[in-house]
């Protein structure tokens, strides 16, 4: 898709987006709390978090659909905080495609250009449709297109205006899983082709990690951690990031000493080790985490240098998922531990006694904090919805 030659007329640089101490308060709670953030021009940036975390409010502030309680919003270095929504160099693609049903696809894409009296609107609309590989359907009506095709039209309509910044508000949420994954690849290709700055708001972890150059994980109006997808996944800094961005096995304990560059941690029923370089704390209370796919199941206690071994435990549940099997193993005092193992024909049965191991270099250390409270975020989401 990104190699379509007629789409190259749309290649142009996006603009930096900068939020400076932005706050948005509603009666009874703060949706966005003193948020400062810089998104470089031409990047694909994802704002990721659960319902009620403030991500959609942040997008609405940038789009001009909400006014901040405090702070500034700059696009390309220009302060747009008090600029009307229609005057901002920003376009938004929503989950609902909002196409005009009585117009053809071509007319839908050209609509904004005609209103702004841009020269050759139909030519530009054809080029935008070619970019999303739908120019051959230019004369059809929206209802004659599939959901994925309608989403591409909505994207073409946004891109044709050449905004400095394109906002994507859960744009793939209405699509089925297979089509959503296909569109993830296509959206990334289009972003690379047109060179605009994309800000993608989503609660879908896979979607954010698949498409974005940088992901910011948001919680209760603040950014908990920001970085490349692999960095956030492999080395989360907080319990919230470790549990929201994928699954993690977490063990609370105390640092009791060091062995070279490794922290020794006492947890109920075991002594664990974690690299000091992969830990956010170096003394006192600590949470040791490890991702389920980093673990291996053994029918006998393994003897391997550089690996953490716990057990024996007992398999209490298995879930077959095609390429892998998810196991839940209960280990005395440590509790239930989740393991993802690639299917190689040797499935461990429920009830079997097993040991678990993982490379010490795959563990990470976090500050101890309360578990993620979904009830609080659901309350915040409801409060936002009724504003």
Question: Which parts are unreliable, with pLDDT below 50 for 5 consecutive residues or more?
Answer: 1-11, 377-387
The coarse silhouette is elongated
How many domain regions?
2
Distance between the termini: 40 Å
Major sheet attributes = 6 strands, mixed
- At the fourth level of CATH, the homologous superfamily of the largest domain is P-loop containing nucleotide triphosphate hydrolases
CATH topology of the largest domain: Rossmann fold
Which class best fits the helix and strand makeup?
alpha+beta
Task: Outline the structure in words.
The protein has helices at residues 55-63, 105-115, 121-131, 147-159, 177-194, 205-211, 229-234, 239-244, 374-385, and strands at 17-26, 29-39, 44-48, 70-75, 78-79, 90-94, 165-169, 197-202, 214-219, 222-227, 249-259, 262-267, 270-275, 285-290, 296-298, 307-320, 324-331, 335-342, 353-359, 364-366. By secondary structure, it is of the alpha+beta class. It has two domains: 5-234, 3-Layer(aba) Sandwich (Rossmann fold); 247-366, OB fold (Dihydrolipoamide Acetyltransferase, E2P), CATH 2.40.50.140. The strands form four sheets. It has a six-stranded mixed β-sheet with strand order 6-7-8-3-9-10, sandwiched between helices. The protein has a five-stranded antiparallel β-sheet with strand order 13-12-11-14-20, with no helix packed on it. The chain has a five-stranded antiparallel β-sheet with strand order 15-19-16-17-18, with no helix packed on it. Helix 2 (105-115) crosses helix 3, helix 2 packs parallel to helix 4 and helix 3 packs across helix 4 (147-159). The longest helix has 18 residues, at 177-194. It starts with 16 loop residues before the first strand and ends with a helix.
